[in-house]
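Field log, afternoon session.

UNIT: design team B
ACTIVITY: writing a sequence onto a fixed backbone
BACKBONE:
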C-alpha cells in the first residue's frame, strides 16, 4: 500500500485519507505542512482496486459517508473535511 510519510513534529499518530484531485485534501496537507506536523497519508484514488476496498472499509469505520479528507488522530479522534480551527486545536497549535 502506498502510504506517504511526511516528517515533522510528532504529536502522535496522524493518518490522513485523501484524494489526489481534492482541493480540500490539498488544503489539509498544506496546513499540516505550515504547522510542521508529522503525518502519513494515502491518496485513496491512486490505490489498486484490491487495496482501495480495504482502505475504504477502514475510512467508513470513522466516517460512514467516506468523504474526503478524513483525518484520524491517535486512533481516537476523526476530523472530516477542512476544519482549520479543529485541526489546530487537536494538534495543539
Amino acid at each position: 500500500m502506498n502510504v506517504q510519510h511526511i516528517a515533522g513534529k510528532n504529536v502522535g499518530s496522524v493518518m490522513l485519507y485523501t484524494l489526489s484531485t481534492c482541493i480540500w485534501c490539498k488544503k489539509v496537507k498544506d496546513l499540516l505542512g505550515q504547522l510542521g506536523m508529522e503525518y502519513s497519508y494515502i491518496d485513496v484514488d491512486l490505490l489498486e482496486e484490491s487495496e482501495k476496498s480495504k482502505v475504504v472499509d477502514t475510512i467508513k469505520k470513522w466516517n460512514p459517508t467516506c468523504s474526503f479528507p478524513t483525518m484520524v488522530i491517535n486512533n481516537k479522534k476523526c476530523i472530516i473535511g477542512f476544519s482549520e480551527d479543529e485541526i489546530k486545536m487537536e494538534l495543539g497549535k
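LOG NOTE: DSSP finds three helices and five strands in the chain.
NEXT ACTIVITY: expression trials, pending approval
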